[in-house]
Amino acid sequence: MIIYKTQKEIELMAESGKILARVLNEIVQNVKPGVNTQDLEDFAEKLIADKGGRPAFKNYKAYPEDKAFPTALCASINDEVVHAPAIPGRILREGDIIGLDLGVEYKGYFSDMAVTIGVGKISVEAQKLLNITKAVLGLGIEQFKEGNTLADIGRAIQFHAEKNGFSVVRELVGHGVGKQVHEDPRVPNYFTEEAKFVPIKRGMTIAIEPMINTGSWEIKLLDDGWTFATADGSLSAQFEHTVALDRNGKKRILTL
Ligand code: MF3
Ligand code: CO
Q: Strands 241-245 and 251-253, how do they pair?
């Protein structure tokens, strides 16, 4: 069931999103060769606490087994698609790309955001992947408007990604956000018939989060039980924003 938010709730989500965007931006400034992902995790936890929020993913019960997610920050490197816990012992190297995914709860409302950046100098292909993935998030957000359905978002993302020779991950999708980090509806980043039946309406708050691979769209779960990686070892990137269509019909990117 989709939960449409009141204007008051959207304002609270905007506060949550603003905290998140600031925190993630500060973490990005600290990404360089030699940094341990645990340092980024510690930094994320400190910054969120300083701003009066709570990390959304740490201890979140995810996946069928209902295990608690171990970290606040997901730091997915190179062929890792999403959900790599930011644990000790992982050192960033020049040329890596790292996806940073973080969620914040503030006054009972969640926001969810991700960026992917290069560590030092990266390859031309990796840079193209980052550019296209960022661009398709923008194209998806452009379609988030009254009169459209979620299928328009998926179509726009898929078309541009595939036109550039990349593929869109299918198994994982965006989602509603609000008093819970994951709510209905599912927000696929590719065209589906089902999504045609989900109109975009005032009060809707969703996370749009395209995951784009340089190779095939298939992914696999790694042995840690959390991290998804591309099945063929190709590079993967993700960008995510939490967006709202407010009660006045105005589109708002909440994680800015
Ligand atoms: N941002 C991720 C998503 O929307 C969730 C974080 S990882 C989790 O799927 F395991 F905690 F869910
Ligand atoms: Co999300």
A: antiparallel
